[in-house]
Amino acid sequence: VQLQASGGGLVQAGGSLRLSCAVSGRTISSYAMGWFRQAPGKEREFVATINWNGVSTSYSDSVKGRFTISRDRAKNTVYLQMNSLIPEDTAVYYCAADRAFYSGSSYDEYDFWGQGTQVTVSS
């Protein structure tokens, strides 16, 4: 399973970005998916997760109400819509796949990881 994250870039505070995570190698229709991020000098932190059929989602408190995770099972792709961005959102964003139907906020729960995409929010 290969995960390819894209869509990062430089944006001003208050702006929006949409990250994509395209998966190849096998279908992820039965996998839970997640997004994590890691800022310089900090540990990787949970951002959002979505269950296998897209019905259930969960977010960290820091992004709740601003970010939306979604998935297109036909395209084998997961998205992270990020609105009202703030400088504190600056980080490398990683997508991850868990072979379970549901997943959580722990790094250890996920089985496969993408390479990351840089998001920089200027003030």
What share of the residues does DSSP label as strand, in percent?
Answer: over 45%
Shape: globular
Q: How many helical elements?
A: 0
Secondary structure category: mainly beta
Order of H and E elements: EEEEEEEEEEE
* Poorly predicted spans: none
User: What is the distance, rounded to the nearest whole angstrom, between the alpha carbons of the first and last residues?
Assistant: 37 Å
Backbone CA Rg: 13 Å
Overall mean confidence score, pLDDT: 96
Helix content: under 10%
Largest sheet: 7 strands, mixed
Query: Could you tell me the number of beta strands?
Result: 11
Kindly describe this structure.
With 123 residues, the protein is mainly beta. It is built from no helices and 11 strands. The strands form 2 sheets. Strands 2, 4, 5, 6, 9, 10 and 11 form a 7-stranded mixed sheet that branches. A 4-stranded antiparallel sheet has the order 1-3-8-7, with no helix packed on it.
SSE map:
Layout: E1 2-6, E2 9-12, E3 17-24, E4 32-38, E5 45-50, E6 57-59, E7 67-72, E8 77-82, E9 91-98, E10 112-113, E11 117-122
Question: Which features characterize this protein?
Answer:
123 residues; mainly beta; seven-stranded mixed beta sheet; 11 strands
Could you give a quick summary of the protein structure above?
Helix content is 0%, strand content 50%.
